[in-house]
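Margin note from the TA: students keep mixing up input and output lines. Inputs are the sequences; the output is the structure of the whole complex. Example:
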Amino acid sequence: MKRALVVVAMSLLAFACKKDEPSRWEKPAATSASASAAAPVEPPKPVVEGGTLNKFFPPESVDGKKRKFTTEKPGFVEARLDDGGKELATLTITDTNGAGDAAKFDKATEKLVDWPLLTPTKKQTSVLVAKRFQVKVSSDTLSPEERKSWLQKFDLKGLSAFNPPAAK
Amino acid sequence: MSETPLYKLVEELPSSSLTTRCLGALDYLVPGEWQNVTNFEEMIKRVTGEDDQSVVQQVGERAMALYDNEDNGYQRAISIFKMVDSGATLAGVTSLAAKLAEDVSWLEFLGKVTPKPETSQAIDAALKFAAEMGTFLCTNGLPGDSVGDFVSALTAYEKEDLMRIAAWVSFDCVLPLGPDFLIIVTSALESAMDKIEESSLYQRISHVLPGGSTSEKRDFVKATIDQSSGFLTQFVDSKGVTQHGILETVKGYLEGAEGKLDYAAAILDVSTNTFEHTGIQTVARRVIKRAYGEL
């Protein structure tokens, strides 16, 4: 009897320990699942075909650096910038299409020409063009000033005048 | 909505298994490229280089939401990676059964074994390569503006992507088919196209391959293999991939298969899931990278 109680107590303890240490990712997973069930129109839409954004990226070769597209999804294009075969930076354009993602630029205190500029993390610099397109440079090695200079190698002016067709 | 959240897919990967040991044994071909990361947080830190916990949390949450949206194609990529290994199991069983038949009474079965193990292996290899393309398209879209960009992306493969190609070249091509595997694979594609079409794996991945009609899709598979042949030949030559070298590397895991190359390849085929394992890591890396870019 006593032994049985100990077993029960121990298994309760084990259960309690397990309950006390949920994965830090469990909540967001559950949230995103329930959110998509309750509000299926959560993602910002419509967004542009990824390929239509390619032409606003820096040219394929600039100052000996090579730009190569790596991802092209609706509303998102990513390119890798290589220096001598080694990754120097990741260049991205995201179509936020007026969703919450653009709102964070309201807090921006800096500007690049006319566009609000943010340093969301210590390795990233981004601008919001036409209140819609987030253009970003992420790099382990480039300084904030160098990232800003790479942002200027995008065709930001062209992008600001871009009136895009929506993705299917 | 996905059945299994992204973090769980990563964290449920075994830290040690026959698959990881065989992949680890191929490190000499692609030194240091593949780390068996089975922790979501660690993967976020490796991909982004960020250690700020609030950034890590934001990236992780966004990555899981991106993965969760079926339209983004990431779930489909993982399902294809999974299909490849279950498809390989069937092809593996066929050649294993054929081999066993030869061992038991090979004179009696001589000339009656269909499909021949070599053709079966070659078709299996071609389909896996087609699947690799399919997952690439689902995960990355078709970056740039031409089909040739896939081949170009292949030459820039690294980390788990490069390890998966190394495993495919080693276990699916060179080990069972020899150093001239490309000739055999190409000839199988040309002469046994109907068999590819009949394959359930091909049928299941064909909808993610570019092209409208079946023949267009088949042409795309063949063209991509043709166009990748330079990369693959160079990979084999520069790394010194040989049947003997691979067999030496994995023989500890293949008791009783010494000297029987096709038998060894069949055992690896049915007992490992290199595409699924590295594929989950590939997709997680890509989604995390995108989440970081969108943040």
